[in-house]
Amino acid sequence: MRRPPLSREQAASCRQSLLAVVPAYNEASRIAPVIVGLRSLGLTVLVVDDGSRDATAEVAREQGALVLQRANGGKGTAIIAACRFAVEHGYRRILLLDGDGQHDPLEAPRLIQAALLGADLVIGMRMLNLQQQPLHRRFLNRLSSLLVTLAAGRRIRDSQSGYRVCDPRLLLSLPMTGHRYDLESEMCVLAARSGCRVVEVPITVIYNDKKSGVHPLFDTLRFFRAVLLSLMRCRGSRRLAPSPPFVLPNIKPKNAVLHEHEPAAPLIFSTASG
Asked: Is the pLDDT of residue 128 over 70?
């Protein structure tokens, strides 16, 4: 289905106010095409190197990305660090996607457009080939989405997808405690319970040689804990308790960058005539 066209003004606004964030751990052999694809859309890219032991940071810099290096703390803490960076530098939205090449960066405009149309949290709903997915992962994904749906009070088909668009100020205002993949489930529950509009957009999955970093036991236990803690922060309604205000001070963008790179190409959307 053809997307409704964005105006040139909307496309220009995206380039100025949206930061593409790629949390990465030991992705030196896979991250370059992700960055190239995002920059071909005219997006500024921030790679959060979560304590990689390979050349992830160096490859990211070579491809023109900003790089935030930190000690290994898990994907959840990398996302929060990116949110703080985005708010500090004046970005109004972040595009989250994985650095392993399983998300197509050229599908980003579909998620961005859903955010521009009013969604507070956009989730890329993976169209999975079940024959290529391990049985335990298939079971965990279905179970997690069912439990997140019940906890959120609205249907969430793919609570584990890492392809998302949201306002970083929203994520920083939610009382999330997850450090790893559990933060993504918390995000779904707490955003929905706070009255935010959550929208899912179908995306494709690119299968490669990357083995999942999800531990079938420990990350399952973390997931159950995340859902339970999210429910404990609610009082049986769709509002958070306590409910932190979705208001953070506007911070003017800083001129400093983490490293120099050439200007990116224009963001590619279908633009309206005139």
From this structure: no
C-beta of residue 129 within 8 angstroms of C-beta of residue 209: no
In a domain, 26, yes or no: yes
CB atoms within 10 A of CB 266: 13
Q: Which of 3, 10, 21, 44 lies closest to 253 in space, CA to CA?
A: 44
Highest mean pLDDT among 115-129, 144-158, 243-257: 115-129
What CATH number has the domain bearing residue 192?
Answer: 3.90.550.10
Domains: count for the chain: 1
- Contact partners, residue 127, CB within 8 Å, separation at least 6: 202, 203, 204, 205
How would you classify the pairing of strands 121-126 and 198-203?
parallel
- Which tokens belong to 208? 């490669």
Residue 238, domain member (yes or no): no
**How many C-beta neighbours within 10 Å does residue 176 have?**
24
Between 177 and 72, where is the model more confident? 72
Q: What per-residue confidence (pLDDT) applies to 97?
A: 96
Residue 60 has pLDDT above 90, yes or no: yes
Write out the residue range of the structural domain in which residue 202 sits: 16-232
Around Cβ 92, how many Cβ atoms within 10 Å? 17
Secondary structure letter of residue 6 according to DSSP: B
**Residue with tokens 């999210």, as numbered in its chain:** 230
Kindly tell me if the per-residue pLDDT of 233 is higher than 50. Answer: yes
Q: Cα–Cα distance between 97 and 203 in angstroms, integer?
A: 12
pLDDT, tens digit, 9 for 90 and up, residues 3-48: 455 566 666 666 679 999 999 999 999 999 999 999 999 999 999 9
Evaluate whether residue 104 is within a structural domain: yes
CB 31, CB 60: distance < 8 Å: yes
Task: Please tell me whether the overall predicted TM-score, pTM, comes out greater than 0.85 for this model.
Answer: no
203-229 residues labelled b (16+ CB within 10 A) or e (exposed)? bebeeeeeeeebeeeebbebbeebbeb
The answer as to whether 264 is a domain residue is no
